[in-house]
Design brief:
The complex is a heterodimer of chains A (481) and B (397).
Chain A: H1 2-23, H2 28-31, H3 36-61, H4 68-105, H5 112-138, H6 144-160, E1 166-167, H7 169-174, E2 180-181, H8 190-202, H9 212-231, H10 236-247, H11 250-257, H12 263-283, H13 286-302, H14 306-322, H15 324-347, E3 352-353, E4 356-357, H16 364-373, H17 380-391, H18 401-419, H19 424-427, H20 433-452
Parallel strand pairs in A: 1-2
Antiparallel strand pairs in A: 3-4
Helix pairs in contact in A: 1-3, 1-4, 1-8, 1-13, 3-4, 3-8, 3-9, 3-13, 5-9, 5-10, 6-8, 9-10, 9-11, 9-12, 9-20, 10-20, 12-13, 12-14, 12-20, 13-14, 14-15, 14-18, 15-18, 17-20, 18-20
Chain B: H1 17-39, E1 51-54, E2 59-62, E3 64-68, E4 71-75, E5 82-91, E6 97-103, E7 110-117, E8 125-128, E9 131-132, E10 135-136, E11 139-140, E12 150-159, E13 164-173, H2 177-188, H3 213-234, H4 242-277, H5 282-288, H6 292-304, E14 311-316, H7 319-329, E15 333-335, E16 354-358, E17 364-366, E18 371-373, E19 379-388, E20 391-396
């Protein structure tokens, strides 16, 4: 019974999210777009979790107890209605997309070396995903903040069947009505509500199983990265390589195995929201607009520092909206912000807002060690440097520039957190410099792969073989999924 | 198919980008390791087997120490250096690297290696030792003018008055090329299990490493890239996709090597997790966790509390246990101090509240008068509900 409840708990957000996004697809032709189906599948979890937790907030506001029926029935109704709408609009398109997805999965169009690479990457990712699934489903909630700042709320909401207030120690001592305390009472309740939903559907609190949605966020990131690169015209093998790069980042895997922090869901929502937002500005496609709006709202409501990541995404959206004419102005604005921050810090070395100090006490060495010498990010920094070196002209190309500006803004934000460690008490939580990098890392992978496409390459004069487009690396042929 | 009269064109040369990249990367890795061995005065000749002395063989010449399992916990004197020593007997030229396994060295503390040999029996030589992240780094004495004869004693000194450090032992090793590479790979593949800091950083093997693997694969990939770009200049038809593709393939190879290491570590962690928690239900898993004793005690405590959420204040010396007790007692309205171990302030506790104490001196209960007193003078009427060794539950009256 608990297993069935667990399966339902994990499936419902995906059903809602996938149905919602699929219903936004205009027609069969759009449904057939290469990469859209896996993209929607990945985005569905991020979007669906957000919608489900909104629903739970609404139910709690009405005074109705949070239980399997009060959440499950409207959740299923929403998913059912939207699925019907999606199917009615583009049934043939979805059938074709699924056929193409099957064909892509078995790599029937690929030459032998590319096929070997395809199945090797798939196997590698399957092994990683399998190991993480067993780890997260077996180990009780482990990392510190997970049981002192996040799941505290979930456990209480589950036990009481409603959302109750959490306050700090002073508020607890002074309260005349029931209030609860944890280490971070001001954090949003989105993720605790998700954990509470898993427990509600299971009918019991289980320290390990409530972490399983984190594994689904991991799968979401893989699918969104694959789907995004594919939608940008890359071949399936290259898109899969991008997903593999994102999915093999050790700290990302660690955040799955040691589930319970908000950084991984934040990374998934930020990656989806930024990619969908940049695309939506250009295409005005309802599916991209819906994904962008809901994912960016999820960014703001996943964690109190989430809104800062919306600021990081803004230069990319501005670049997508203004086009090449605006790139220089946006880059200039970013430089002004960075220089302004340094200037203010130099002029007011003791500036502080409450607990938040703006003192310049850089920890560059920590950042360098964490990024280059330790195993957190494999060779992400090398990849970023290599991308700039090999594809610097492409970085300001129309399709890459928005991503370049988001990555640059994210890098400035990480640099500010490094230069002014006191800011982390306000913009991000205490110790986690690497956790800030985590939010940016999947997007940086997409940027690297996209920027390396069509990298300027002087064709050797003596060769008789024309330089192949990167999407034909190792002989793979494009298909639609 | 060739048309009539036309000469059949030769098939294009086979694209060697991938195979050549793999080969060049392997060669690049070997070159990096060879350069590292050379820089560390490694020799190709076989030398003696490593000799290791565990904590039980060590003695504290200055300071105090006690053995906890296989670790010597040593405390430096208030106004002097700490010295931990061990008598030895090996030929200096056979084993020229010394690795003290010392952790928890305070930041800024000066650490030195002392050694004595039968060549200069009346002198004690000393050399500075590096410290990284609180750990003492291995030292190479190859080529040292005083590392001669038979080494009759080794010691480590730590200048950190009053500090407590942990010593697992000391190992003397050869500086052969094989030994150096074996030591580095042992660091890369040292099992890194989950800790409280794992959520923030992944070391990639041992906490302190002389040559991190990402450096090796990056330099190897750069060497391979330079070599292949040069080769491509002379045989461009073999690399039709250009230098960007070569760089991309090398990047993927290097990434795969690092990820293979991480996968191995994850597999070992998974085995440990399954061994500890596999096949258990939620309750059994809680009992099997690090704070299983606390869980068992709090299960009894919860049975004594009313079912409705109550105000409960948790006191414990270690903030881990304060937080964990708060977690296990939910959905009661639990207050615990996240950062410091403080007694409850006057006015915080009121009639109807409960107090859970876990491994914390400072709270005293007078059974005769029924008063609960704290070290800050707060004195309240209370009833003892549950008491076990180092733990109790009180109801404030």
């Amino acid at each position: 019974m608990q297993a069935a409840g667990l399966a339902f708990a994990l499936a419902l957000p995906i059903l809602i999210g996938v149905a919602l996004l699929a219903a936004c697809v205009r027609d069969a032709a759009q449904a057939r777009q290469a990469g859209l189906a896996p993209w929607i599948l990945g985005a569905g979890h991020v979007v669906g979790v957000f919608v489900l937790t909104l629903l739970m907030r609404g139910i709690a506001v009405t005074g109705t107890p949070l239980d399997l029926v009060s959440i499950g029935v409207p959740g299923l109704a929403i998913a059912g209605a939207l699925s019907w709408l999606a199917w009615r609009r583009s049934a043939t398109g979805w059938r074709d997309a699924m056929t193409d997805a099957r064909r892509t999965l078995i790599a029937s169009d690929l030459a032998r070396p590319a096929r070997i690479a395809w199945f090797a990457l798939l196997a590698w990712m399957a092994v990683r995903a399998g190991m993480l699934l067993v780890e997260v489903g077996t180990r009780p909630l482990y990392p510190w903040d997970a049981w002192s700042a996040w799941a505290t709320k979930a456990k209480t909401f589950f036990a009481l069947g409603t959302i109750v207030p959490f306050v700090d120690a002073a508020g607890w001592a002074a309260a005349s009505t029931p209030v609860w305390f944890d280490a971070a009472p001001g954090q949003p309740v989105t993720l605790p509500l998700l954990q509470a939903w898993v427990a509600i559907a299971m009918g019991a609190w289980d320290d390990a199983r409530i972490g399983l949605p984190w594994w689904l966020y991991f799968v979401s990131i893989l699918l969104v990265v694959y789907g995004e690169v594919r939608r940008r015209g890359y071949a399936p093998l290259t898109s899969l390589a991008a997903a593999w790069l994102a999915g093999s980042l050790p700290l990302l895997g660690t955040q799955v195995a040691l589930a319970g922090y908000a950084d991984l869901p934040l990374a998934a929502a930020f990656t989806l929201g930024t990619l969908a937002g940049i695309r939506a500005i250009g295409t005005r496609a309802p599916v991209d607009i819906a994904a962008a709006v809901l994912a960016l709202a999820a960014v703001a409501l996943a964690k109190s520092s989430g809104w800062m990541w919306l600021v990081v995404a803004l230069p990319g959206f501005a670049a997508a909206a203004l086009g090449p004419a605006g790139y220089r102005r946006i880059a200039l604005a970013l430089a002004v912000v960075a220089i302004g921050a340094i200037g203010i810090a130099a002029r007011f070395p003791k500036a502080a807002l409450g607990q938040v100090s703006f003192a310049y006490e850089p920890i560059w060495e920590t950042l360098a060690v964490d990024s280059v010498l330790l195993a957190n990010w494999h060779l992400l920094v090398v990849g970023i440097v290599g991308t700039i070196a090999f594809s610097w002209r492409r970085l300001v190309g129309r399709d890459v520039a928005p991503l370049t500006l988001v990555v640059a803004a994210g890098a400035i934000w990480v640099a500010m957190l490094t230069a002014f460690p006191g800011v982390r008490h306000w913009g991000a939580d205490g110790l986690g410099l690497n956790r800030a990098v985590l939010v940016l890392a999947p997007l940086a992978i997409v940027w690297m792969v996209v920027a390396l496409r069509d990298a300027p390459e002087p064709t050797p004069t003596t060769t008789t073989v024309p330089a192949a487009a990167p999407e034909a690396v190792a002989g793979d042929a494009p298909s639609s999924a | 198919m060739a048309t009539d009269g036309a000469k059949p064109s030769a098939p294009p040369p086979r694209d060697r980008t991938v195979t050549a990249s793999i080969a060049a990367f392997v060669i690049g890795t070997m070159l990096v390791l060879a350069a590292y061995v050379a820089a560390n005065s490694g020799s190709l000749r076989a030398s003696g087997e490593p000799k290791a002395w565990g904590a039980e063989k060590l003695s504290v010449a200055r300071g105090t120490g006690r053995l906890e399992g296989n670790v010597l916990v040593a405390r430096a004197p208030a106004n002097d250096v700490l010295i931990v020593s061990v008598p030895t007997d090996f030929r200096a030229r056979d084993l020229s690297a010394v690795a003290w396994e010392v952790v928890d060295v305070p930041a800024g503390a000066a650490v030195r290696l002392l050694f004595q040999s039968d060549y200069t029996p009346k002198r004690v030589h000393n050399r500075p030792l590096g410290v990284e992240d609180g750990r003492v780094l291995p030292a190479s004495l190859a080529g040292d003018a005083e590392w001669l004869g038979r080494i009759t004693g080794l010691a480590v000194t730590v200048s950190a008055p009053g500090a407590t450090i942990r010593v697992r032992g000391v190992t003397a090793k050869s500086q052969s090329a094989v030994q150096i590479v074996r030591d580095r790979s042992a660091e890369w593949f040292k099992f890194e299990s989950w800790t409280g800091t794992s959520i923030n950083a992944v070391n990639g093997g041992a906490a302190a490493q002389s040559l991190p693997l990402p450096v090796v694969v990056t330099v190897a990939a750069l060497i391979a890239l330079a070599a292949l770009v040069a080769i491509r200049h002379f045989a461009p038809a073999r690399f039709p996709r250009g230098s960007t593709s070569i760089a991309t393939v090398l990047f993927l190879i290097a990434w795969a090597v690092l990820d293979a290491r991480w996968t191995v570590n994850l597999a070992r962690q998974l085995a440990e997790t399954v061994d500890r928690y596999g096949g258990k239900d939620a309750t059994e898993r809680s009992r099997a966790a690090e704070d299983g004793d606390l869980v068992a005690f709090l299960d009894k405590a919860k049975a004594l509390l009313p079912a409705d959420p109550q105000r409960v204040v948790v006191l414990a010396q270690a903030h881990y246990f304060r937080g964990r007790a708060g977690w296990h007692l939910l959905p009661h309205r639990v207050l615990w101090e996240p950062a410091r171990d403080l007694p409850p302030q006057a006015g915080l506790l009121r009639a109807g509240d409960f107090v859970v104490v876990w491994q914390r001196p400072g709270a005293q209960f007078d059974l005769a008068s029924g008063r609960l007193r704290f070290e800050n003078g707060v004195d309240l009427p209370a009833k003892l509900l549950l008491s076990e060794r180092d733990a109790a539950v009180f109801a404030i009256l």
